[in-house]
Amino acid sequence: MNQSTTAKAHLRHEVLVGGISNTFFNGLIAWLLLTGGPALAWGGEHSFVVDVIATALLLPLIVALIVIPLQRSKLSKGKLQAISLGAGSRMQAIADRFPAGTLKSAMLFGLFGMCVIAPLTLLGFYLFGVENVSPTNYAIFKGVWAGVMAGLLVIPMVLIALRDPQ
User: Fold this and answer.
1) ∠ CA 157-74-117 to the nearest 5 degrees?
2) Are 59 and 146 a contacting pair, CB within 8 Å?
3) What are the 10-residue block averages of pLDDT along the chain, 166 residues in total?
4) pTM to 2 decimals?
5) Alpha-carbon span 91 to 154, nearest angstrom
């Protein structure tokens, strides 16, 4: 296998692990916290807006604080090689613009989630005319949404961690 094939296989593995684990845990936590409660709405005490914004901030931040150091540790131990998807890769170009520091990168992922992912998600709710969401449906949505978000964001996180230091 060449390095490009190995890199893509590693990224695919990390996407699956990050996506599936976040789908399961976020869905389960939402279900445990919300089951038996009232429907969630745009405003008020049981607002999905606050949860979407908080999750869009915290999930990428926490995942980055886990993924980047773990990948760097594997790199330093020789279990992984530095990878690059090449100059023509848009994802590689994005990853290359992130700072080298884990905390700074994690904060940028959190801000991206809060400022881009949350508004787009809420825009989707608005465009589809969602006024209220039952706790069970919200738990399902939250699990899938968190899994997709983590699965997609783990790609630049791994690329940041495994970029060639030269």
Assistant:
1) 15
2) yes
3) 72 95 97 95 94 98 97 92 85 89 97 98 97 96 98 95 78
4) 0.91
5) 11
